[in-house]
Amino acid sequence: MCSTRPAAIRERISNSNALLVRKPSPGTYIHLPSFLMLLGANPLSDIGGVRSVVGIVSRGRYYSGTDLAGMLASVEEANERTGAFVEEVMTGGAEAARRYIESWRDSGRTERPFESMPVLFLGYALGRQGDLQGALGLFRLAADVHPDDYLAAYMLAGVLLVTGDHDGAREAYERVLEIRPGHPEAERLLSSLRERAR
After folding, report:
1. 139: closest CA among 187, 172, 164, 106?
2. Among 28-37, 44-53, 91-100, 134-143, whose mean pLDDT is lowest?
3. What is the tens place of the pLDDT at every residue in 58-110?
4. How many C-beta atoms surround the C-beta of residue 140 within 10 A?
5. Which residue in 72, 4, 66, 60 sits closest to 33, CA to CA?
6. Residue 21: CB partners within 8 Å, gap ≥ 6?
7. Which domains does the chain have, with CATH numbers?
8. What are the start-end ranges of the H helices in the chain?
9. Sequence-ordered list of residues with C-beta below 8 angstroms from that of 141, at least 6 positions apart, any chain
10. Reduced to 3 states, what is the DSSP secondary structure of residue 135?
11. What does the pLDDT look like over 108-162, one tens digit per residue?
């Protein structure tokens, strides 16, 4: 729903879980369930108005334009880091990736050297091409750099299982369940590995 009149939105969504924020100056309010985008210009008059985001309310929290600009800069910087890491992997393989991580840690930087999802996709692609050792190396790095990422632990566990490292797979599935209790597939596979170990 889109309107330049907040009252019109309020009337139409009075029974929903919408969050409305009043602005001191006139503007356009766009509503999605539990999401509100405040625009500084009317996109109904000029479509360019969709680029004039003043703020967003999401899940009960207000993000100002300054907050959003900072978030965007953080995402752009993370993309650059991840791109540099993937470039290392593509040109030098898993060993180059390990050296890159070591160099990163030695530099004293506190942010993570890469975001996990692109690296997990790359590892998955290597595995599909039959390079299980390459996939294993990337999944180990991802699980090490992102110890709170259940998907990194889950993908690591899968390759460990396929390569016959049942003890390693069992530990990785246990890690998945520490991060995400009740993960059905991890529970099933871990139960199967425990039965084999008896």
Report:
1. 172
2. 28-37
3. 877 888 889 988 988 988 888 888 888 888 888 887 778 888 888 888 888 88
4. 20
5. 60
6. 36, 38, 55, 57, 62
7. 2-59 (no CATH), 70-197 (1.25.40.10)
8. 6-12, 65-106, 116-128, 132-145, 150-162, 166-179, 184-197
9. 94, 97, 98, 101, 119
10. helix
11. 888 888 888 888 988 898 899 999 998 999 999 999 999 999 999 999 999 999 9
CB atoms within 10 A of CB 90: 11
User: 109: which DSSP letter?
Assistant: -
Cα distance between residue 158 and residue 193, in whole Å: 12
CB 54 within 8 Å of CB 27: yes
Distances (CA, A) of 52 to 21, 92, 168: 17, 43, 51
CB neighbour list of residue 196: distance below 8 Å, 6 or more residues apart: 166
Confidence of residue 27 (pLDDT cuts 50, 70, 90): low
CB-CB contact of 168 with 175 (8 Å) = no
Mean pLDDT of 18-44: 60
- Whether the model clears a pTM of 0.85, i.e. scores above it, the answer is no
Task: Give me 106's structure tokens.
Answer: 């030695």
Tell me how far apart the alpha carbons of residues 115 and 73 are, in angstroms, rounded to a whole number. 15
